Amino acid sequence: MAIDHACQKVYDYIDAHFAEHVANFQELIRQKSVSPLNLGMAECAALVERRFRAAGCQKTEIIPTAIHPIVWGEIWNDAPATMLVYFMYDTQPVEDEAWTSPPFAAEIVRRPGLGRCLIGRGAINSKGPMSAFLDAVASIRAVHGRLPVNLLLLAEGEEEMGSRSLQAFVRDNADRLKRADCLFMPLSDEDDCGTAKVTLGVKGIVYFELECSGASWGRGPQAFDIHGSSKAIVDSPAWRLVRALATMTSEDGNRALVEGFYDEVRPPDARDRALLDELQLTFDPTKMMIEIGDVKEFIGGTADRRALLERYLFQPTLNIDGIWGGYIHAGGKTVLPHKVTVKMDVRLVPDMDVDETAGRVRRHLDRHGFPDIKMNRMHGYEWAKTSPDSDIARAHIDAMKSFGHPVEVWPIAPGTGPWYLFCKMPLNLSCVIGGLGHGARAHAPDEYFVIEGEGGVSGFGDCEKSYVRTIFEYAAVRARGGRAAAGR
After folding, report:
1. In this structure, are residues 95 and 153 in contact, taking their beta carbons and an 8 Å threshold?
2. Which residue among 46, 154, 376, 398 has its CA within the 20 to 30 Å range from the CA of 54?
3. Closest among 153, 141, 159 to 91, alpha carbons compared
4. Domain topology for 204-265+315-381
5. Which CATH superfamily is domain 2-200+386-479 in?
6. What pLDDT is stored for residue 291 in this prediction?
7. What is the mean pLDDT of residues 452-479?
8. Cα distances (angstroms) measured from residue 237 to each of 134, 135, 345
9. Domain with CATH 3.30.70.360 in the chain
10. pTM
């Protein structure tokens, strides 16, 4: 088969240049890019632009935004198909985390059962996949001289902050983005047994803070924390916030009681149900408990895997991310806090709306006697979803299967990303997330990416090869006129 032959030549090139590609990966990790702290962001944007040029972009641009730059690149071959490829180059902070290897040293160590792994912040989320994709593109060009598709490359530096500048970029650059036929996000989404995941969408999110203060309430301490003994005669904003939060969920915290919270929730459709039926056959809840942090029990148990998956993917959540006020450091200090704050997020499923959901939270607080509690919306995304029959979905699924790995197709992810900007008006692109390669501990200490795997787990080279195959498969599908409408 022509596609096998074309890809194999590139695979051989990747094998021959493996050490160089790993070094490129290490360079990206060593360049800090902690977006919430503005640590190394401009320097990392410059490095990403250099990587775009090394991959073969004829045009690159570092585009300033109100916060962190967006990096743009184009490889244009007058091919019949054009892929828009999304990357994020920013990472989460590492403070107050206990790492066994320095988080920005990009050390390669052996992990039992996995093989040699690169340890570093951003390894799996998602500098590793970005570096692998760019070297995959460079390898295709080195072997064949040109790509079978056109590529539009977009790397943002604010994903960990809610992609605040991306909406304006998409609005202001719609003409250049409309040249794309699909959106692909490289992600190394293979579990530690070698099963590859293909994801066709994401939940949305509303992220906000609630603040209860004596000054806003008109009761309790007004300007600063006071002596804890004063509680005998002074009201507590901390207890008031606790009471307000208690009105928002059932007693176990597992069902939202915000009025109208579930009104727009759309049940899984026939295609979703078919994918869930297939997914339950390979989904291992016990393994997942370990992977996400040694959880001992899931809500509702694990006996009905089908029901567990449907809850996980198609039910919204109301979550407390953090709560603080008063004295929270070592030792003791008895105070009555004058202000208490909680960070919360709602994960949105089809057909929930960002603004309507936030408005319902605000109205709930007002109706239950808490109009003084301030609500500060920090960011929000809409949900996004793509048909499994779209050209990019079928091409990527075929690419993953070509490596002999079991493949799970997830109709939507429990997490969140800014794909709605591309999947809905005005672009209406089909979007797929995936790729071979295994890593874990995103947002946690000792984040890692497998470099040379063992026990059926793919390494960094196979990750690159999976992107090569996806590019060629997509070109082939489009050359045949496509398989189906996107069904967005």
Report:
1. no
2. 398
3. 159
4. Alpha-Beta Plaits (3.30.70)
5. Zn peptidases (3.40.630.10)
6. 77
7. 95
8. 52, 54, 21
9. 204-265+315-381
10. 0.89
